[in-house]
Specification:
Blueprint (H helix, E strand, L loop, with lengths): L1 E3 L13 H10 L2 E7 L6 H10 L3 E5 L11 H14 L5 E10 L7 H17 L4 E6 L2 H11 L4 E4 L5 H9 L2 E5 L9 H9 L5 E3 L21 H12 L3 H15 L9
Parallel strand pairs: 1-2, 2-3, 3-4, 4-5, 5-6, 6-7, 7-8
Helix pairs in contact: 8-9
């Protein structure tokens, strides 16, 4: 079964055809779609989406890009939401959380404080995390080691091979998606070949990071089979083999994915 381990299905870009997109993904062989929250305002939206669609699972967290408009009360509300959500089999972890050092105007100290508090939350509830890691690999690694979280996924990974190896050693899988489909993405393509099969999961990050054949268009989870095919071709492996091991890896790093939905 193909698993889209990162897809913002609740985004406004899907407002007009969300149900159709999910249907098309299912028909394409995508059996699970993980929808991370990004701020307090969509905690309920991602949970509701999972309640309506058996293929959807969700995580709760505050994205580093949204930290500047979040309040300390949001962290309290997040903890309360997680405490309630652990009874919901569609809830699978904490995310999307992390650090983003690409955008210069963001408050890095505030990002780090929110990140650490959310890692503490994940540790307290023994939950995996879905990490946003943009030009901040070493800083994210430092806090993940310090807080001793149980692993998860380093989403849209684009660091060095050495950094990737350190995430893997901490129990994380590397998320690969549309960026890998561009021939000029040499670093990402090298990373796709660098590790054993246990290192990888697949994602779309829809509606963002569209694959090469949808350049500057909306991405969608039904693109995942073709993304998987590119990954298989790069690794010179059978597509069925790739689907099998990326599915197994997703279940390993996100154990609650194995729970039956309501």
């Amino acid at each position: 079964m193909l698993i889209d381990t990162h897809c913002h299905l609740d985004a406004a870009e899907f407002a007009c055809d969300r149900d159709e997109v999910i249907r098309m993904a299912s028909e394409a062989g995508v059996g699970r779609i993980i929808v991370p929250s990004v701020e307090r305002g969509n905690f309920q939206a991602v949970a509701d989406l999972a309640a309506r669609h058996p293929c959807v699972r969700y995580t709760l967290g505050i994205h580093p890009i949204y930290v500047d408009r979040a309040s300390d009360e949001d962290l309290v509300i997040l903890r309360e939401a997680v405490a309630r959500a652990v009874a919901d089999p569609s809830f699978i972890g904490i995310g999307e959380i992390g650090l983003d050092h690409f955008i210069p105007a963001t408050d890095r100290d505030r990002q780090e404080r929110f990140f650490v508090e959310q890692l503490r939350l994940a540790r307290d509830f023994e939950l995996p995390v879905i990490l946003h890691v943009r030009r901040a690999q070493d800083a994210v690694l430092k806090q993940c080691r310090r807080m001793a979280v149980r692993g998860g996924i380093a989403h849209a990974f684009n660091g060095s091979e050495q950094q990737a190896s350190q995430f893997i050693d901490l129990g994380f899988a590397l998320g690969f998606g549309g960026a890998m489909t561009y021939e000029r993405a040499l670093q990402i393509r090298r990373l796709a070949l660098a590790f054993d099969r246990q290192a990888y999961v697949l994602e779309t990050d829809s509606p963002d990071i569209a694959p090469a054949w949808r350049y500057k268009q909306r991405n969608a989870p039904f693109e995942l089979p073709r993304i998987a095919s590119v990954f298989a071709d790069l690794r010179k492996q059978d597509l069925g083999t790739v689907i099998g091991f990326t599915h197994a890896n997703a279940l390993r790093v996100l154990p609650r994915l194995s729970l039956p939905s309501n």
